[in-house]
Design goal:
The complex is a heterodimer. Chain A is 73% helix and 1% strand. Chain A is built from 12 helices and 2 strands, in the order H-H-E-E-H-H-H-H-H-H-H-H-H-H. Chain A has a two-stranded antiparallel ribbon. In chain A, helix 1 (19-61) packs across helix 12, helix 3 crosses helix 9 and helix 3 crosses helix 11. The model of chain A has no long low-confidence stretch (mean pLDDT 88). Chain B has one domain (88-300): MetI-like (MetI-like fold), CATH 1.10.3720.10. Helix content of chain B is 67%, strand content 0%. Chain B is built from 10 helices and no strands. In chain B, helix 3 packs across helix 9 (259-267), helix 7 packs antiparallel against helix 8 (204-232) and helix 8 (204-232) runs antiparallel to helix 10 (272-300). The longest helix of chain B has 36 residues, at 32-67. Chain B is flat, with a radius of gyration of 29 Å. The termini of chain B are far apart. Classes of the chains: A mainly alpha, B mainly alpha. Chains A and B meet through helix 1, helix 3, helix 4, helix 5 and helix 6 of A and helix 1, helix 3, helix 4, helix 5 and helix 6 of B.
Chain lengths: 322, 304
């Protein structure tokens, strides 16, 4: 018959993997698995290490640290309410300013306000902002932002000092310069994630709005932004998370004063700034209290970041279905 | 049968305004909604310009203030004490390079192995999804907490501040970033190429080494360079791990200076000489960071 089965002879090119190849493959698999496990173990180790170091402080003063307003090393009385307040207040203010500018820039770059090539240049400029180290922003804040905002701040205090936000005068470092620099630092994060979110809005929806005779801004405000709202809110939450953990620029600009004030012009402090300025010279007892503060900061940022990541996951799934 | 529109839908009736005339389809630029459109557009241009101002201002200050001290002495001399004139930031540049190199040596291999596991070997396993989620959470982790953690885990253990501890703290920050970008890069390799290799009888290891890694290499390198650039500018994790030193680094178990901590320390000093050096150090730091960023753009560009 014409049909003939050709059996592979001993000179065949193909061969089963050698025992060595199997061994290498197994080893490689376990090495890779160890890499993935390392990430999980690292997170557990971080929680365990910071938690363990904070344990004596937690045992000594419990939750009273969270409401105590004194940081008194002599009397071993440690309270971080002003720091928690300063962290949340500065981050919220920065989110208001940086979030608004960030989302505006995302609209500016995605809705054909600029020709394509110019938009690329502008996008690069904003991305470069994210590359400037925080300590350089701090230096810039000290020598550019503070002298620049001081006359305006003093004028506002003189003219409208009865408003709680302006109730003190700006005598150098303070909340306002810190908030300004912080909002610049979260702007690229917010702008980048918002651009992605707006990019996910189906083109058909925008075309439909224009087809009905909407002006450009009616289409943006009533159709595109609501459709992208999930992604934009996750951009804001993640930007907020970045602001909460920011350290150096704040330590250099906020004035490190242990007080709670609504005034934008008074010095304040944050959890991260407390760690940065007190940790290097702290004694054993104070260090345990600082570990407690680190744990609180960790808890706050963890909640905010998990929320942001989940919102992002949830909206991208919803968008994929639509 | 007569073809009639049903009374329920008055088909093709032209909608009319309150005055009974059909509305104009033309564009009237003085209509409130058109004016509103114009105002918002102008406002948006103003906000965009406002957003670009800080970067230009920072760059201007760096070039004017930092450029004034950009000379050979800057790179070879040690930082000056109190009232001394002159001096440089040589040991800080050395310290930054050493700590970043230590961080890269620790984090890149672990991150690549983790990424291979997440992207190629067991993408759907429980370990992978937990590791992926935790890596995402870690990227949003405040960098000062890496310093606190390494202080507890390494500095207390070794009994002193050291360049090594600083490197470990930076590695904690690099690990999740590189893992996630490398995983993304490996996902971009067409499945057909991997299938072809598996069809030819390759083991997983051979597929990863001969197909996935070479194809994904440009994007992986981009991710690594961006992570290096990011940690080169970090200061919070070095504050109480690497500390600072006024001398050259001889041994990685000693404390070391770094550009970012030098800027932080000098920014609060009352001496003009130190402030000038802080600006010059900022310029050098930004040039390193932006240099890495630009490099990553060239490498990351699609090769085909």
């Amino acid at each position: 018959m014409a049909f003939q089965l050709v059996l592979p002879d001993s000179k065949s090119v193909s061969q089963a993997p050698s025992p060595l190849a199997y061994a290498v493959d197994r080893t490689f698999f376990y090495a890779a698995a160890a890499g993935a496990l390392a990430i999980i173990l690292l997170v557990i180790y971080i929680l365990w290490e910071i938690g363990g170091q904070a344990l004596p402080a937690i045992g000594r003063s419990g939750a009273s640290v969270l409401v105590n307003t004194q940081w008194d090393v002599q009397n071993s009385s440690f309270g971080i309410l002003p720091q928690i307040w300063g962290t949340l207040y500065s981050s919220l203010m920065a989110l208001l300013i940086g979030g608004f500018i960030g989302v505006s820039i995302a609209i500016f770059l995605t809705q054909d306000f600029l020709p394509h090539s110019l938009a690329t240049v502008f996008r690069t400029l904003i991305e470069m902002l994210a590359a400037i180290p925080s300590v350089v922003f701090g230096l810039w804040g000290i020598f550019v932002v503070i002298p620049f905002v001081r006359p305006a701040a003093d004028w506002l205090h003189d003219a409208a000092g009865f408003i709680p936000f302006f109730s003190t005068s700006l005598s150098g470092p303070g909340m306002l310069p810190a908030v300004i620099v912080l909002s610049i630092m979260i702007l690229p994060t917010v702008a980048a994630i918002s651009q992605d979110a707006i990019g996910l809005v189906p083109y058909k929806i925008k075309e439909a709005a224009y087809g009905l005779g909407a002006t450009r801004w009616e289409a943006i405000l009533k159709v595109i932004l609501p459709t992208a709202s999930g992604g934009i809110s996750s951009a804001l939450v993640l930007g907020f998370g970045r602001a909460l953990g920011e350290t150096m620029a704040l330590a250099m600009l906020i004035g490190n004063a242990n007080q709670i004030s609504l005034s934008l012009f008074s010095p304040a402090t944050t959890l991260a700034a407390l760690l940065a300025s007190n940790f290097p010279e702290a004694g054993a007892i104070e260090r345990q209290a600082l570990m407690y503060a680190a744990l609180v900061l960790l808890a706050i940022t963890l909640v905010v970041n998990v929320a942001g990541t989940l919102i992002l996951l949830w909206t991208s799934r919803k968008m994929a279905k639509a | 049968m007569a073809f009639e529109a049903s009374p329920a839908t008055p088909a093709m009736a032209i909608p009319s305004g309150s005055d009974g005339k059909p509305p104009s389809l033309g564009y009237n630029s003085f209509e409130p909604r058109a004016l509103w459109n114009l105002i918002l557009t102008l406002g948006l241009w103003a906000v965009a310009a406002l957003g670009a101002t800080p970067l230009l201002s920072v760059l201007y200050m760096l070039i004017v203030k930092g450029g004034a001290r950009l000379n050979g002495e800057l790179f070879t001399e040690l930082p000056p004490a109190g009232f001394e004139m002159g001096g440089g930031i040589g040991n800080a540049i050395q310290g930054t390079l050493v700590t970043v190199a230590i961080a890269s040596l620790i984090s890149i291999p672990i991150a690549l192995f983790a990424a291979i596991y997440l992207a190629e070997l067991r993408p759907l396993s429980r370990i992978s999804s937990v590791a992926r989620f935790l890596a995402k959470v870690l990227t949003g982790f405040p960098s000062i907490l890496a310093g606190v953690f390494v202080y507890a885990a390494v500095v207390l253990l070794m009994g002193s501040y050291s360049a090594l501890a600083g490197g470990v703290a930076l590695a904690v920050l690099m690990l999740p970033t590189i893992t996630l970008t490398a995983e993304g890069a490996m996902h971009m390799v067409p499945q057909r190429m991997k299938d072809a290799a598996i069809g030819m009888g390759c083991t997983n290891t051979q597929v990863v080494w001969s197909v996935t890694l070479p194809t994904a290499l440009p994007s992986i390198v981009t991710g690594i360079i961006l992570a290096v650039a990011r940690v080169a500018g970090e200061s919070a994790p070095l504050l109480f791990t690497a500390l600072f030193s006024n001398y050259w680094l001889r041994n990685i178990t000693e404390p070391t200076a770094s550009l970012s901590i030098l800027i932080y320390n000098f920014s609060s000093m009352p001496f003009d000489n130190q402030i000038e050096l802080a600006w010059a150090a900022s310029l050098v730091l930004v040039m390193i960071v932006l240099g890495f960023n630009i490099l990553s753009r060239f490498i990351g560009r699609p090769q085909v």
